[in-house]
Design brief:
alpha/beta; 222 residues; 11 helices; single chain
């Protein structure tokens, strides 16, 4: 009896540089669980192909012709369930925060090793979130420290268990990993995450981590 092949993660590659797109397609094609379903050369094309091809993960540059990457993320996030992994050379505070707030599930800088790219795609494809340490550092540099009063209010808003779940989210852990680590069911993990998003006013896990970092509730390490 032979082992079943791994389930394919359907990927759309969006970058305005043909050489970069070709390189990504070639590199990603070495992974047996990756399936490249399409390519996009600008933001509008990325939005359109996200709708027609229904990929699981979109590897998206931010600086492209037409609509920019942040607006593309916003439109894609509003229209379908694709997970969006930003892969760009730009690490300005405005772009990082804009991408996260628009709905990006992860943020990697070009130059990241292949293994890190592969891992990021697999993490976000399963609903996880991932901020590259250097990106998280840039994000933290931008954040203004909240007053003790607002910080205290934030701490009171989350239960002790929700704080534990939040720390795991900051590490990019998946629901099943959090469940095992905290010895609770995945259903309970989902309940806590939903409560965290509501209390922090976040639209997704990545934004929740960003907001929590702004309020001093979590620390990034590594």
């Amino acid at each position: 009896m032979t082992d079943s092949p791994p389930a394919s993660i359907r990927i759309l590659v969006a970058d305005d540089h043909p050489v970069v797109r070709d390189g990504l397609v070639t590199v990603l094609g070495t992974q047996p669980d990756f399936l490249i379903v399409g390519e996009a050369a600008n933001g509008l094309e990325a939005v359109e192909k996200a709708e027609t091809l229904r990929p699981d993960v979109i590897l998206l540059d931010l600086e492209m012709p037409g609509i920019d990457g942040v607006e593309a993320i916003r439109r894609i996030h509003a229209a379908n369930t694709a997970q969006i992994l930003v892969f760009t050379a730009f690490d300005t505070d405005e772009l990082i925060i804009g991408a996260v707030q628009a709905g990006a599930n992860g943020y990697l800088l070009k130059g990241a090793p292949r293994s890190e790219i592969f891992n990021a795609i697999r993490v976000v494809s399963q609903g996880g979130s991932l901020l590259q340490p250097i990106v998280a550092s840039r994000l933290m540099q931008h954040i203004n420290h909240q007053t003790e009063e607002s910080n205290g209010q934030a701490l009171q808003a989350l239960t002790e268990r929700e704080m534990e779940v939040l720390q795991w989210l900051a590490q990019g852990k998946l629901n099943k990993e959090i469940a095992v680590g905290l010895v609770i069911s995945e259903r309970t993990v989902k309940f806590h995450i939903s409560s965290i998003l509501s209390k922090l006013g976040a639209g997704n896990r990545t934004e929740a981590v960003s907001i929590a970092a702004q309020r001093g509730l979590i620390n990034f390490s590594g």
